[in-house]
């Protein structure tokens, strides 16, 4: 695959803050890149630079091998912002027509209505949409100019589980059509499902990047056994334990042996859960667990 978007040594410094400090990234055409990181990690500033909305202090961004200033970049990208202000009293159909009028090249509005499943509320005032319906409309607006590359900024934040999964299906369909996607999200399951590559940022730097499954294999060689904390309290176990609020995690490189040890110690395994390592484990391992504002 060819690289559609490339950034080298991006930096964005403010008088008292180094928001982004030397980030490099390549996005291959037709793939989905996910950017993850805690609040203040620098990912929002990085994305704003990649979108062409913020000028880097230093570094270079290229679109199809050329600096974005030398291309028709803004015509070829779409953006679904985390928060979007729309004109009052317009219907979903009105909004699609309004944004289509801003571009020389556009997608078929009918095809977007079908792709984003807008038929049932097409003539409804956008202020009366549910959260999931609004996000589907905003996705259609982001695709109105038939972009080669679309940025999705935490598009499922605040959605209920069903609406979130419905939105994932739309994103996967868009990717199957060949559109390249850059996604920011705080949902690890979302990143694992949608993204071909992920980058984890912290303190303005890219601290890990790669395919989700490969990153997990690179950082972990164990399996997690979970038991309710009440089952383990007061018992001496010669096993590596990680105590959580209501449960205990046992990190095991040999599940069979660990289960035999638990049985020998007289523990009930009725509520035992065995799971592989997840992106959430990796995220917390790399960025820590402290609360950030």
Question: Could you walk me through the main structural features you see in this protein, from its secondary elements to its overall organization?
Answer:
With 293 residues, the chain is an alpha/beta fold. The chain folds into 2 domains: 3-217, P-loop containing nucleotide triphosphate hydrolases (Rossmann fold), CATH 3.40.50; 222-276, Alpha-Beta Plaits (2-Layer Sandwich). 32% of the residues lie in helices and 27% in strands. It is built from 11 helices and 14 strands. It has a 6-stranded mixed beta sheet, with helices on both faces. A 4-stranded antiparallel beta sheet has the order 2-1-4-5, with helices on one face. A 4-stranded antiparallel beta sheet has the order 12-13-11-14.
Structure summarized in a few sentences:
The protein has 11 helices and 14 strands.
**Rg, Å, rounded:** 22 Å
Span of the ends, CA to CA: 38 Å
Count of domain modules = 2
| Order of helical and strand elements | EEEHEEHEHHHEHEHEEHEHEEHEH
Q: What is the topology, as strand order, of the major beta sheet?
A: 6-7-8-3-9-10
């Amino acid at each position: 695959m060819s690289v559609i978007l490339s950034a080298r040594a991006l930096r964005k410094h403010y008088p008292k803050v180094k928001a982004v400090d030397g980030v490099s990234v390549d996005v291959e055409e037709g793939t989905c890149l996910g950017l993850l990181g805690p609040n203040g990690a620098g990912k929002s500033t990085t994305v704003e630079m990649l979108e062409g909305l913020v000028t880097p202090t230093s570094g270079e961004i290229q679109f199809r091998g050329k600096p974005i200033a030398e291309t028709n970049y803004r015509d070829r990208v779409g953006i679904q912002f985390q928060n979007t202000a729309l004109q009052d009293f317009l219907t979903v159909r009105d909004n699609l027509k309004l944004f289509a009028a801003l571009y020389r090249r556009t997608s078929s509005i009918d095809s977007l209505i079908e792709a984003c499943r807008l038929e049932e509320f097409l003539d409804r005032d956008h202020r009366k949409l549910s959260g999931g319906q609004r996000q589907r409309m905003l996705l259609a607006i982001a695709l109105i100019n038939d972009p080669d590359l679309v940025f999705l900024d935490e598009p499922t934040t605040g959605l209920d589980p069903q609406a979130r999964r419905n939105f994932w299906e739309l994103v996967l369909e868009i990717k199957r059509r060949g559109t390249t996607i850059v996604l920011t999200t705080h949902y690890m399951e979302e990143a694992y499902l949608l993204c071909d590559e992920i980058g984890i940022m912290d303190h303005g730097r890219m601290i890990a990047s790669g395919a989700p499954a490969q990153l997990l294999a690179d950082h972990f060689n164990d399996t997690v056994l979970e038991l309710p904390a009440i089952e383990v309290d007061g018992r001496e176990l010669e096993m590596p334990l990680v105590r959580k609020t209501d449960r205990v995690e046992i990190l095991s490189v040999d599940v069979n042996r660990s289960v035999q040890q638990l049985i020998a110690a007289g523990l009930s395994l009725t509520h035992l859960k065995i799971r592989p390592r997840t992106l959430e484990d990796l995220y917390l391992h790399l960025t820590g667990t402290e609360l950030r504002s």
